[in-house]
Structures are given as C-alpha cells and as structure tokens.
Design goal:
alpha+beta, five-stranded antiparallel β-sheet, 5 helices, 11 strands, elongated
C-alpha cells in the first residue's frame, strides 16, 4: 500500500473535526441558554420549567436539514433542581427508533426512571458521558457503545459540562448514530491509501477502513493507550506520533478522538 500523503491526512482530520464541532457548537449554544436561564432565576429551576426550555432548544435541531442528532437534552446534577433529585430533560428525534419497533415517531421526551428505589433506576452519574465532563470540565465524546437508555443502537454521545457560579449543575449533550458518522467519514478514510482507524480516548474504534476493525471494538496496539492519554491531557500530538509498530497517531483537534494510520506494507 502507498503511504498516506500529509494532505490526505489533513483532509481526514479536518472532516472529523468539522463533523463533531458542528454538533458541539449547538450544544454550547444550548449550554449558554441554560446558564442564562439559571442566572435569571437565581438558581431556582424546576423540572417542568427546565423541560419546557430544553424542548424548545432541541426541537430546532431535530428539524434541521442534514442534522445528525437523534437525541439531545440536559441531565441535571442530583442537587440542582429544587423539585427533582434525579432528572433527564432529554428528547428523542424523529429518526430515533428507540422503543418504537423500528418505526419512526414524532419528537418525544425520553421516559427514564427517576425514582432511585425503582428496580430499573440507573445512576447516570456513574456513566462515562457524565463522569468525564464532570472531572475534566471539558467536552467529551463517549462511544461508540450500545446505548440501552436512549437508542438501543451503537451510539456516540457528545456531552459538555454546565456550570453556574462555578458549580457543576449537569451536562448538556446529544446522541449520534455511529452508522451515520461512519457513512460520512468512511470514504475519506478509504482514500488515505492505507488503512485508517478513528479511535476514541479509550482506543475503541469509531470508524475504520480496515474491514477487521469493527465499531466499538478495542484497537489493540502496544503503546497506543499511552499516546491517547497524552492526547486527552494536552490535546496532542497534533502533528502525529509514530509508535514502535509503525502506526501513526494524530489527534483530531480537541474532539478527544485520534486517527491511527497503519504502517506502510
């Protein structure tokens, strides 16, 4: 196989970055509105008022032409809302087939169990899409993973922390189907001239031009995990780092994703 030209690498990085940045920009706008609303009400926010605000924000995204978002909303810190300890203000879009037997539906609110004594209650503060933004105060991409809470399909969840008066009050985010991301990025990866694999910060495959690398599987290369930890810590190596195996690892801006390019064979 021929080497992957630097220009082609740059095109892949640019497409990955733009694909996720466009969604993160909308999430940041939602965050700013939520913070402004919380400030205007001096931090006294109810579940009902939050639901109304969040629904008005995310409905526009579901109706936008070419939108990738299949679910979106805000998940509250257990001590944030005055009338609900646990609350997910989360909506599912028309292309989200969760609990619909494959049929498309109208935009609807996710019916999640919020009673901690119920058998099917799940503590969302233990999940990656919550834990990492809370710990790092930065945006994060979780997955691909099978999201049994919101989609029942391989999903990428993009989340961003929300602070009010420097207090962490929850996360705002969006779900994307992994297959939609693959359809966008695969052709560009295929054009590299040698196998390219996009991985998350845990070395799980997001999309790959290698038929042996399935989405959600671990990409096992000696030294890769150490490089990915450095990427998360310092937003590098932006220019690429070559592992002992000959694989080249390049960070995709601050998406927390990295492109791994196979050695020349």
């Amino acid at each position: 196989m021929i080497p992957a030209a630097p220009a082609l690498r740059g095109e892949v990085i640019a497409m990955v970055t733009s694909t996720f940045d466009s969604t993160f920009e909308r999430i940041a706008n939602w965050r700013d509105v939520l913070v402004a609303y919380t400030r205007a009400h001096d931090g006294v926010v109810t579940a009902a008022s939050l639901d109304s605000l969040v629904e008005s924000l995310v409905r526009h995204e579901f109706g936008r032409e070419g939108a990738l978002v299949v679910g979106a909303g805000f998940v509250a810190h257990p001590q944030f809302l005055k009338d609900a300890q646990w609350h997910l203000a989360w909506w599912l879009g028309t292309t989200n087939t969760f609990d619909s037997r494959g049929r498309l539906q109208e935009v609807r609110r996710l019916e999640a169990e919020e009673n901690p004594r119920a058998d099917n209650f799940r503590d969302y503060t233990t999940l990656e899409w919550w834990r990492v933004p809370e710990k790092t105060a930065r945006r994060h991409i979780t997955g691909p993973y099978v999201d049994y809470l919101c989609t029942d399909e391989y999903t990428l969840t993009l989340t961003m922390p929300v602070f009010w008066k420097e207090i962490f009050v929850g996360v705002v985010g969006a779900d994307l189907y992994a297959r939609d991301i693959e359809s966008i990025l695969f052709p560009k990866l295929k054009a590299l001239g040698r196998s390219g694999t996009l991985v998350n910060s845990s070395a799980r495959v997001v999309v790959s031009s290698d038929p042996n690398c399935e989405a959600g599987s671990l990409f096992r290369i000696p030294g890769l995990s150490d490089v990915l930890r450095a990427v998360v810590a310092s937003e590098g190596p932006a220019s690429g780092q070559t592992l002992d195996s000959g694989h080249v690892v390049i960070a995709c801006s601050d998406t927390s994703l990295s492109l791994v390019i196979d050695p020349v064979t």
